Amino acid sequence: MNIDKPKRHFVKEDLIINTWEDVKPYFEDLTERDLATKADVEQWLKDKSELDAVLEEDAAWRYIRMTIDTRDESLSEAYKVFVTQIQPKLAPFEDQLNRKLMASEFVDDFKGEDYHIYFRSVRTALELYREENVALQAEIAELSQQFGSISAAQTISYKGETLTMQKAATYLKDKDRTVRKEVYELMTERRAEDIAALDELFSKLVAKRHQVALNAGFDNFRDYKFQAMGRFDYTKEDCFDFHASIKKHIVPLVKEIQAKHKADLGVDVYRPYDTEVDPSGKEALKPFEGGEALLQKSIAAMGKIDAYFADCIATMDKMKHLDLESKEGKSPGGYNYPLYEIGVPFIFMNAVGAQRDLVTMVHEGGHAVHSFLSRDLELTGFKSLPSEVAELASMSMELLTMDHWDEFYKDEEDLKRAKRDQLETILKILPWIATIDEYQHWIYENPTHTTQDRAEAWLRISKEYGTGLVEWEGYETAKATSWQRQLHLFEVPFYYIEYAFAQLGALGVWKNSKADLAKAVANYKEALKLGYTKSIPEIYETAGVKFDFSDNYLSEIAKFVGEELKAV
Fold this sequence. Notes:
The protein is mostly helical. It contains 22 helices and five strands. It has a three-stranded mixed beta sheet, with helices on both faces. The chain has a two-stranded antiparallel sheet with strand order 1-2. α2 packs antiparallel against α3, α3 runs antiparallel to α5 (131-152) and α14 (387-401) packs across α19.
């Protein structure tokens, strides 16, 4: 497809943002403009939307470039300038603009249109805004980026080669137990060097986040964050019920998987470096060699579901909106970053040729397709998605592509191993997500805790979701600090349980596709086109699934996945 950058009508085409002064006149214009008619309000919303898109895209490229090469101080500085010198100046104006909009006599005239969800978010922002939090949030943003720098610097030396943690992790699938043990210990030793620094960083973040909540009139950051994230469709009590359901229905399935795995491996003591290896004695799955092969095979697999999906990824490649391979200095993880002005997102990941890279690619590909399908929505605010919706797109794509992974695996047995790995991983990740979520509730309900309290809480909570089969003797410190590897705790607090809710929805999409693929894909695309113009339950309903994480539904889903696993 051909993508042309939309013509700007409000912001100058040649605008270069170096300082706050470069964008200040646009905010002053919007602040001072008279809204005498509904048409005035509509034009004002469009102009504000254009400005939002320009600013968000500018910030996005700064973040993308910084994460691609954390060693380039100029890139980190460019991002730092935005979050510490430009973003804090935006907040007071955003508050003024929100007040101006809500004060308009024509707001009620938009009822029945796609503005309800957007106006609800504006009202929430108004309720939460506190001038004293502007500087605090800038400090939090600056502190958060330190996690990426610390993590990106973690490498080990093995057999004369310097390995990133992502690359080193591939050795944990090696059939030679001696190799797995050696690499695991090198990884834990390297991570141990940063335990104190990450503990200190996290303590600072918790304290500042708690202060933000107090300033806004909340008892704790959890309650503040629930409102700030727009969790209008479920409560913290729903999260607690979900935690209990995971322990009841999913943990027993994971225990069965691990017990069989241990037996197949033939080990008396099941160690943390044993959990990822294939017990068949075969080499770790290797679905591709290099980023280009990953790209082309992903395009082919997605194209078998819908030609449009393939076209989206091919367009990103043409526009150089992909950075797929792991390399030194690159931040860990993977993401799809929406670029709201051009409407073509950017995929960043750390591919090393592993099965998980295949999954990451189609996962981020699902996000990318979502960006394409919602790019023509009228306002930038309509495209700002809650994670429950965003992750439905990505996780559904993982499962929908699974029947076409023969693009990666020509050997039938390898294909079955990959599918089995995918389903087992889904089951295993659900307790981990619930663990991280329950831990966050504890963290922010007890904001004055010590690092020792934190370690003890982590061990207590993680034990409730564990199978009790892994022997950690000799690796107690690694177990007590394993939470430090979770990016979300440092950079995007409370943004994680949505993955679990969306996973349940994605399993529903996949289940529907088993009965009628064309209908399931059509419903999926219609849901993605909505962006965030409907409530979460309405979007899920459009996709043909329920927004449900009750005990009964988890029991139903657990049974379905269990049966599919047996069939592989």
